[in-house]
């Protein structure tokens, strides 16, 4: 969600942003499975919000516990990530998830003028044509796929991640 926010801010305020680094985010996550996805105006998130906020603490914990292995391979950090998740405000969590599921920045990113580093998890290599199509409107893009790991590539492929950051920040 942070990557989507960074893209939206850089698109809305291109004169204020010097560089952006996007970590494992796409302009339109829904378009990965539905290339014809269309963002809906005034989407009603009330059902999704209710489903998540109605869960007991234990139910929410178990839901997140099942999700974490899909996001991180580093078992030492998995518990930390799980704790962050269960400590988050569930109302905000649900609203952000619903909003992000309905976000399409594919056209909007054309207004971004700053250098952009896009770091994606290794699994996304399987969707290269679709992902590169999503980023086709973003100029000055350095799109890189991690060698290993999942969403939390900063923990799963730490050396590669920091090398990418250092190279981008030093050379742009």
CATH homologous superfamily designation? Alpha/Beta hydrolase fold, catalytic domain
In CATH, the architecture is 3-Layer(aba) Sandwich
Structural class: mainly alpha
Q: How many domains would you count in the coordinates?
A: 1
What's the CATH class, please? Alpha Beta
Radius of gyration: 17 Å
Number of strands: 3
Separate helix tally: 8
Helix content: 40-55%
Strand order of the largest sheet: 1-2-3
- CATH fold group: Rossmann fold
Runs with pLDDT <50, length 5+? none
Order of helices and strands: HEHHHHEHEHH
Overall pLDDT confidence: 94
Write the layout of secondary structure elements.
Layout: H1 2-12, E1 20-23, H2 46-53, H3 57-67, H4 75-87, H5 90-101, E2 116-120, H6 128-134, E3 141-145, H7 153-156, H8 158-171
Parallel strand pairs: 1-2, 2-3
Helix pairs in contact: 2-5
What are the key terms here?
172 residues, mainly alpha, Rossmann fold, three-stranded parallel sheet, 8 helices, 47% helix, globular
């Amino acid at each position: 969600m942070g990557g989507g926010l960074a893209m939206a801010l850089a698109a809305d305020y291109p004169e204020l942003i010097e560089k952006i680094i996007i970590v494992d985010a796409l302009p339109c996550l829904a378009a990965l499975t539905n290339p014809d996805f269309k963002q809906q105006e005034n989407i009603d998130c009330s059902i999704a919000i209710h489903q998540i906020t109605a869960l007991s603490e234990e139910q929410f914990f178990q839901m997140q516990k099942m999700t974490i292995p899909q996001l991180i391979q580093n078992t030492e950090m998995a518990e930390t990530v799980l704790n962050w998740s269960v400590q988050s405000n569930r109302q905000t969590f649900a609203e952000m998830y619903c909003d992000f599921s309905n976000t399409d920045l594919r056209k909007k990113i054309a207004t971004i003028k700053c250098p952009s580093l896009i770091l994606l998890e290794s699994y996304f290599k399987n969707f290269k044509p679709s992902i590169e199509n999503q980023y086709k409107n973003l100029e000055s893009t350095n799109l890189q796929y991690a060698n290993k790991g999942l969403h939390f590539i900063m923990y799963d492929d730490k050396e590669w991640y920091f090398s990418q950051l250092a190279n981008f920040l030093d050379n742009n």
